[in-house]
Amino acid sequence: VQVVASSVSSSVGQGESRGHAQSMSGDEMLLQTSVLLAVGDVVRVTVPSGDKATLPCVLHGRANRVTELDQQGECQFGVGIEFIHESDGERERWQRFVTQHQGGVRK
Length: 107
Hints:
Layout: E1 2-5, E2 19-24, E3 28-33, E4 42-47, E5 57-71, E6 74-83, H1 88-100
Antiparallel strand pairs: 1-4, 2-3, 3-6, 4-5, 5-6
């Protein structure tokens, strides 16, 4: 997760931070991350394919909900990311990616 634009000034330009996808669909992802975000923040999400022959998916999205999670004393956030597909081709590529990686994630 890379924060592109944020109302939480400490999050902008933080560089890449890891997150864990709790669920994915064609238009949205529920992400667990240590990055503090606010509703409306714009992020760049890179999702590795798990296959060295396949390039990762890189998408832009907007946080549409944020909840604080307590993970054994470590501050984490559950963030709903609504994807901003820049083209029909990008949307189709992401939908194929989600379909291929359904093991353990919700459609």
